[in-house]
Design a protein that fits this description.
The complex is a heterodimer. Chain A is α/β, with parallel strands linked by helices. Chain A is built from 17 helices and 22 strands. In chain A, strand 7, helix 9 and strand 8 form a beta-alpha-beta unit. The N and C termini of chain A lie far apart (54 Å). In chain B, the strands form two sheets. Chain B has a six-stranded parallel β-sheet with strand order 3-5-6-7-8-9. In chain B, strands 1-2-4 form a three-stranded mixed β-sheet. Classes of the chains: A alpha/beta, B alpha/beta.
C-alpha cells in the first residue's frame, strides 16, 4: 500500500490533525484485508458549506478505463463530530440499510436537487411562510447588494461616454436598454437608478428619458418585491420573469441592443456538473439523491408507516406543495406539505461515483460549447475536482448575444478565479434555505468569453462585507 | 502548403453578370480549431497543420463549387484570422505573447521600419494562391487584410505617425499583390473591417488602398463591414462615412454588409455617381438561421431596382468563419439559387441544368 499524503496549505492550517486522523482511520479500517487497499484512494475535503449534500464519510466508486477502485471521501468539517474508526468500519462492512433513493445515477447537473432549487424559487412565498424567514436572511451576510459605489459611478460614466460617441455617429438608439438578471430586493436597481439620474442631471445629457431598465428574475415573488423598491422609477423600469439559464428565450428582441447587463448571485444557483481529473483521465461525477435511514424513519413516524416517501417526493417536485396537499392524504394543507418539503430538503444527500467523461467533443458544457474548450485549462494540471458551471455557462453564452457591440456585462458572484483554488478547498454544492449554492468556475467562463470575442476579468468586489464575492466584467476583446 | 497540385491550373470559367462570390473565410470545423490551438501549444508542428490545411481547403473548394459559387476562395483556412496571418509574417513586427487559443488575437508592436518590398520572404500568399488555383476551374479571389485595419492591431514604435505606418503597410501589401498578379491571380480583395470604427480615417484608408492597388491589373475589391469578430459586429453606423473619399479609390468593387443591418444604405450608392460594382451582402453571417431563397431574392431585387443588375455582385455580408459548416453550405446554396432566380427574372434567360451562373455567361 502506498500512502501518498498531500496536504494542501489550507488543510495544513485548518485541519491537519483531522486529515491525518482520518487517513490513519482509513488505513486501520483497510488493515483487515477485506478490501483491496491498493485500489483505495482517500480524499479529504474542507467543504465550503457546512450544510451540504454529503455524509461525513462516503465511498465513491471510480469506474475508469484505466483505474477502477474506491475513493473514501471525508468531509473534515463534519468529521469532528464523529468516531471515524466506527463510521469507516461500518461503511466498509456493508451497504447502508433503510435509505430511500430518489433518482437513478445521473450527472450532477441533472439531479433532482435542481428541481428542488427551482421549486424553492417558484414557491418562495410558501417556503418563507413555513420557515418564518425571508430568503434574504438566508443569504450569507443577510442582504443582496444595493450599495451605491464608485464602481456604479464609473460604469454609468462609461455608458455615457459610449452613448455620446454613438450620438456623434447618429447611431444612438432611441431606447437605451440596461438589463439586471437576479434582482434581489431591488436595492441594486434603486441605487443604480438614483445615481444614473443624478449624473444625467449634472451632465445635462437627458439619457434618463431614453433609458429602459429591465429587471429579470426566475421568481415572480422576488420581482414583485423588487418592483416595489423602484417605485420612483416605474416609468423607466420593467420586470420580466425569465429563466436565467436561457435569457434569450425571453429577450431575443433585445439582441445586440443591451448596453449594460448586471447579474448578481445568479450563476451560483444554476445547475452544474462536477469533473474530476485523476491520473490524467477526466471523470464526470454522477450522483444519486437519497434520504438517509434516520430521516426516512422520522418522516415515516410523522406521515404514517404506509407513506411512500419516494412517491411523495416525486409528487412534490412534479406538482408543488399546494397540489401535493390537495392530492395526498398525509397532508392537511399546503403549509403541512411545505414542512414535509423542508424536512426532505434538510435530509437530502447525494451518493457519488466517477464515470469517464469520454470524448471531449461529445460533452457539452452548454449549447455551442464542448469540453474541448476547457481542455487547455486542465491539461497537465494534475488531480483536481472542479465545477463545470454548466448553468452559468449557458446563461452567460445566452446573454452575450444581447449585448450591444459596445456593451458590457458585470456579474457579482462566488467565482473561483484560478483552478488552483480547487486544490485547497471544495466549494459546493451547499444548501441554503431550499436552494443550492456552488462556487462558479471563473476560468471556464473566461475561456468561453474568449471564444465568443469577449475579455473577462475578475476582481474582488469593491464594497460590502462579503469578501468572497468577486466581480466578473466581460467586454468586447478588440 | 505541403501538397502541390498535379499539373497546370485548369482553364477558368468566366463569371457572368451578377456573379456570386464569397468574402473570404469559410467555416472552421471545431476539430480544426482544436488542431490550430494544439499548434499554438506546441502539440503539433506547423508542417502537420499545413497537411491538415491542404485537405480542408480541398473540401472548402468542393463545397463552394457544389453550391455554385462563381468566384471562390481557399476559405482562408490557413489563417487564424486575416490580421494575425499577416502580422506573423511582417518583418519588424514583434508578437508580444504567444496565443493560448488559436482564435486569440496577437498583441503586436512594430519597433523598426518594415523591410522594403523584396527584402523579406513575402507573406506566403502566392504559394497559397497557386495551391487553390490548381484545384478548381473557377476563378479564385484572394483577400488581404487592409493596411488601415492592420495598423489598428499594431503598437507603433517605428514611425512618426499612424499614417506613415499605414502607408508602409500598404507598400508591403502592394508588393504581395504584384506577386499574386504575376502568379495569375485575377481577383484580389482588400479587407478593412476596422474602418467602420474609425470613419474619420477614411481618407487615409483610401490613400493606402490606392497604394496597394497601384498598377496591379486585376479586379480589385474592397470589403468594408462592421466587424465580424466571433460572429458579432464591432461597430455600428452607416456607410455614408465612405463618401466622398471612396470615389477616389482605384478599385473595381465594394463588397459590403447589408443583410444584418438592412438595405437603407444602398441608396447612398445609387445617389453618389460612381461606376463601382457593389458586392451586395445578402447573407447574415452573424446569425445561424439560414435565409430562405425568397428573402434573398427580395434583397437582391431591391438592390437591382436601385443600382441595376449590371452593377451588382452577390456575396455574404462577410466571411463564414464563425458559422457551422452545414449552415455555411446551406446559406451559400440559398444565395446561389436566389441569385439564379433573380438573373432569370432580369434577363429572362432559362437556367441551364439548373446551374446558377450559367444562364447569363458571356453577357
Amino acid at each position: 500500500v502506498l500512502v501518498d499524503l498531500r496536504l494542501s496549505k489550507n488543510a495544513a492550517e485548518r485541519s491537519k490533525d483531522g486529515a491525518l486522523a482520518a487517513t490513519s482511520a482509513v488505513v486501520r479500517a483497510l488493515a483487515d484485508g477485506s478490501v483491496d487497499a491498493s485500489s483505495v484512494r482517500v480524499e479529504c475535503d474542507w467543504i465550503q458549506y457546512r450544510n451540504n449534500f454529503r455524509e461525513p464519510i462516503a465511498l465513491r466508486q471510480v469506474l475508469g478505463r484505466r483505474r477502477r477502485g474506491t475513493e473514501v471521501a471525508i468531509d473534515l468539517r463534519q468529521l469532528e463530530k464523529l468516531d471515524a474508526d466506527a463510521a469507516l468500519s461500518s461503511l466498509l462492512a456493508s451497504d447502508p440499510v433503510g435509505v430511500v433513493h430518489l433518482e437513478p445515477w445521473l450527472p450532477l447537473s441533472e439531479s433532482c436537487i435542481w428541481r428542488f432549487n427551482a421549486l424553492y424559487w417558484s414557491e418562495l412565498a410558501l417556503w418563507e411562510e413555513v420557515s418564518g424567514k425571508g430568503y434574504e436572511q438566508a443569504l450569507p451576510g443577510g442582504a443582496s447588494g444595493g450599495t451605491d459605489t464608485d464602481a456604479n459611478r464609473d460604469l454609468i460614466l462609461g455608458l455615457f461616454k459610449v452613448w455620446d460617441g454613438l450620438a456623434q455617429r447618429r447611431s444612438l438608439p432611441e431606447q437605451l436598454t440596461v438589463l439586471e438578471l437576479g434582482v434581489g430586493n431591488g436595492n441594486q436597481a434603486r441605487t443604480w437608478l438614483e445615481r444614473f439620474v443624478r449624473i444625467d442631471h449634472e451632465m445635462g445629457t437627458d439619457y434618463y428619458r431614453r433609458l429602459h431598465y429591465l429587471m429579470g428574475d426566475y421568481s415572480k415573488h422576488v420581482l414583485d418585491l423588487a418592483r416595489a423598491n423602484v417605485s420612483e422609477f416605474l416609468d423607466r423600469t420593467s420586470t420580466l420573469a425569465l429563466d436565467a439559464a436561457r435569457p434569450s428565450d425571453t429577450l431575443r428582441f433585445l439582441e445586440k441592443k443591451v448596453f449594460f447587463v448586471y447579474i448578481s448571485n445568479v450563476y451560483d444557483n444554476l445547475p452544474t456538473d462536477e469533473i474530476v481529473c485523476l491520473d490524467d483521465e477526466l471523470y464526470r461525477v454522477e450522483v444519486r439523491a437519497f434520504l438517509p435511514a434516520s430521516r426516512v424513519a422520522s418522516l415515516a413516524s410523522r406521515l404514517g408507516s404506509k407513506a411512500d416517501i419516494s412517491d411523495l417526493v416525486a409528487k412534490l417536485l412534479k406538482f408543488g406543495p399546494t397540489l401535493l396537499a390537495e392530492t395526498s392524504e398525509p397532508f392537511s394543507d399546503p403549509v403541512d406539505a411545505g414542512r414535509f418539503w423542508q424536512e426532505v430538503w434538510s435530509g437530502l444527500r447525494l451518493e457519488e461515483r466517477y464515470v469517464p467523461l469520454g470524448a471531449l467533443d461529445l460533452y457539452r458544457v452548454c449549447e455551442g460549447v464542448s469540453a474541448e474548450l476547457i481542455d487547455p485549462c486542465v491539461d497537465g494540471f494534475g488531480d483536481v475536482r472542479f465545477h463545470m458551471s454548466n448553468g452559468a455557462a449557458a446563461s452567460f453564452v445566452d446573454t452575450l448575444p444581447l449585448l450591444h457591440p459596445l456593451g458590457s456585462l458585470v456579474c457579482h458572484d462566488l467565482f473561483v478565479t484560478d483552478l488552483d483554488q480547487y486544490r485547497v478547498g471544495f466549494r459546493g454544492p451547499g444548501k441554503y434555505e431550499g436552494s443550492v449554492v456552488n462556487w462558479v468556475n471563473g476560468p471556464v467562463l473566461a475561456a468561453i468569453a474568449s471564444r465568443f470575442g469577449y475579455h473577462a476579468t475578475f476582481d474582488a468586489m469593491e464594497h460590502g462585507s462579503n469578501r468572497r464575492i468577486v466581480t466578473m466584467t466581460a467586454r468586447s476583446r478588440d | 502548403v505541403t501538397d502541390a497540385p498535379v499539373g497546370a491550373s485548369p482553364p477558368k470559367r468566366v463569371p457572368g453578370a451578377m456573379p456570386t462570390t464569397v468574402v473570404g473565410s469559410y467555416s472552421v470545423p471545431s476539430w480544426l480549431e482544436r488542431l490550430k490551438t494544439d499548434f499554438h501549444r506546441d502539440r503539433i508542428s506547423g508542417a502537420r497543420l499545413d497537411e491538415v490545411h491542404d485537405v480542408v481547403i480541398k473540401a472548402a473548394v468542393k463545397d463552394q463549387e457544389q453550391v455554385g459559387i462563381d468566384i471562390i476562395s481557399d476559405g482562408e483556412l490557413r489563417r487564424d484570422n486575416e490580421v494575425d496571418y499577416i502580422l506573423e509574417r511582417l518583418g519588424g513586427v514583434e508578437l508580444l505573447a504567444p496565443k493560448t487559443y488559436y482564435y486569440d488575437y496577437y498583441e503586436a508592436v512594430v519597433r523598426s521600419p518594415l523591410p522594403e518590398p523584396g527584402e523579406g520572404e513575402g507573406l506566403g500568399l502566392v504559394e497559397q494562391f497557386r495551391f487553390v488555383d490548381g484545384l478548381s476551374d473557377r476563378p479564385i479571389t484572394v483577400s488581404l487584410a487592409g493596411p488601415f485595419s492592420l495598423s489598428r492591431r499594431l503598437i507603433n514604435e517605428a514611425y512618426r505617425s499612424e499614417s506613415d505606418l499605414v502607408m508602409a503597410l500598404a507598400h508591403t501589401l502592394h508588393a504581395e499583390a504584384e506577386a499574386l498578379a504575376a502568379a495569375g491571380a485575377t481577383y484580389l480583395q482588400i479587407d478593412e473591417p476596422f474602418l467602420a470604427g474609425y470613419p474619420e480615417a477614411v481618407d487615409l484608408a483610401v490613400r493606402a488602398v490606392n497604394a496597394v492597388t497601384d498598377g496591379v491589373d486585376v479586379h480589385w475589391a474592397v470589403h468594408v463591414c462592421y466587424g465580424n469578430h466571433y460572429a458579432r459586429p464591432a461597430w455600428e453606423g452607416h456607410y455614408d462615412f465612405l463618401f466622398p473619399a471612396v470615389l477616389d479609390a482605384r478599385i473595381d468593387e465594394l463588397k459590403l454588409e447589408f443583410a444584418r443591418k438592412g438595405y437603407d444604405d444602398l441608396e447612398l450608392f445609387s445617389r453618389n455617381a460612381s461606376d463601382l460594382q457593389i458586392g451586395v451582402g445578402v447573407i447574415d453571417v452573424k446569425n445561424q438561421q439560414v435565409e430562405t431563397e425568397a428573402v434573398i431574392e427580395a434583397r437582391l431585387t431591391q438592390a437591382v431596382k436601385l443600382l441595376g443588375a449590371e452593377r451588382l455582385a452577390v456575396n455574404p455580408d462577410c466571411g463564414l468563419r464563425n458559422l457551422p459548416g452545414v449552415v455555411a453550405r446551406a446559406k451559400l446554396a440559398a444565395m446561389t439559387r436566389a441569385t439564379a432566380a433573380v438573373r432569370a427574372e432580369v434577363w429572362g434567360a432559362p437556367l441551364e441544368d439548373g446551374r446558377p451562373g450559367e444562364a447569363d455567361r458571356g453577357r
